[in-house]
Design goal:
- The structure is a single chain.
- With 278 residues, this protein is mainly beta.
- It has 4 domains: 56 residues, Beta Barrel (OB fold (Dihydrolipoamide Acetyltransferase, E2P)), CATH 2.40.50.140; 61 residues, Beta Barrel (OB fold (Dihydrolipoamide Acetyltransferase, E2P)), CATH 2.40.50.140; 58 residues, OB fold (Dihydrolipoamide Acetyltransferase, E2P), CATH 2.40.50; 66 residues, Arc Repressor Mutant, subunit A.
- Helices cover 13% and strands 38% of the residues.
- It contains 3 helices and 18 strands.
- A 5-stranded antiparallel sheet has the order 3-2-1-4-5, with no helix packed on it. Strands 8-7-6-9-10 form a 5-stranded antiparallel sheet, with no helix packed on it. Strands 11-12-13-15-14 form a 5-stranded mixed β-barrel.
- It is elongated.
- The relative contact order is 0.08.
Length: 278
């Protein structure tokens, strides 16, 4: 089956004057225009291509990989607004349409918006929407606590940063859990810290529990190496000083420091941490 909006691995069926025809083994084929045909290819070989509708609304393949695919949420820029809606740059020749009915606020040329890519049932075309909530639900969660997930940063609230979790659910990263600069549209890893009774998700940007020890210890060790073997930090240091120096919480810092101390990698003093010499 050839799926629009996704990467497809297809077989090269035949060479024509307009390009290669690729098939899925089920009797379906699609054109890969000449401008995307590689210099070296063999009939019968497999190719990975992205499929969508061209300007004539015909399925077509490309070796270009777009900035957003079917079912994903990404930050894109509006390059044109006309009577049909807003058109966004997504890395392909034909721009991605956001119909007026799918704009939470009227989009403006040159501005960036987080949008969701979906297949319009009526036209069969790939389109986008920035009415994000209609594509997200926490009613039936497909994640559990401690799961590692992919996050898309969507907006800042009074409590923290709202995020999209695995392109399916909504979550929140509290401000006191953030130790690096975040921007709307960032796609970053995270962990499910807590699932509340109402299925709201609390998100951590760091691995949880015991898994935080080794990364934290490695971060402290690497920072010591980069600072001539000394850091003016200790277990009484201000949390803000620790965050500025290491981009981690004081709790994580103390766990990581404990690991290094038990392994005799560092010595501790009231002045700070010193790298132990072998």
């Amino acid at each position: 089956m050839i799926e629009l909006g996704k990467l497809n691995t297809l077989e090269i069926l035949r060479d024509t004057s307009v390009g290669l025809f690729l098939g899925d083994g089920l009797g379906n084929d699609v054109l890969l225009p000449n401008k995307y045909v590689p210099e070296d290819y063999q009939i019968g070989a497999q190719m990975e291509v992205f499929c969508y509708l061209d300007y004539d609304e015909r399925p077509v393949a490309t070796t270009l990989e777009p900035d957003i695919m079917l079912g994903e949420f990404r930050l894109l820029q509006v390059v044109e607004v006309n009577e049909f809606g807003a058109f966004m740059e997504w890395g392909l020749e034909k721009h991605l349409l956001v119909p007026f009915r799918e704009q939470r606020v009227k989009m403006k040329q040159g501005q960036w918006y987080v949008v969701h890519c979906y297949l319009d049932a009526k036209s069969g075309r790939l389109v986008a929407s920035n009415k994000l909530d209609k594509f997200l639900s926490n009613d039936h969660l497909e994640v559990k606590e401690w799961d590692e997930v992919t996050l898309v940063i969507t907006r800042q609230t009074d409590l923290g940063w709202e995020v999209i979790v695995n392109d399916r659910h909504k979550g929140l990263v509290y401000f006191n859990e953030v130790f690096k600069t975040l921007n709307i549209g960032d796609v970053i890893p995270g962990c499910i810290k807590k699932i509340r009774e109402d299925n709201k998700l609390d998100i951590s940007l760091q691995p949880l529990g015991a898994r935080v020890l080794e990364p934290a210890a490695a971060k402290i060790y690497d920072t010591l190496l980069a600072n001539d073997g000394f850091l003016a930090l200790h277990d009484k240091s201000d949390p803000n000083d620790i965050r500025d120096a290491l981009q981690m919480s004081k709790k994580t810092f103390k766990k990581g420091l404990g690991t290094l101390y038990r392994e005799r990698k560092v010595t501790l003093s009231p002045e700070g941490i010193t790298l132990a010499r072998d």
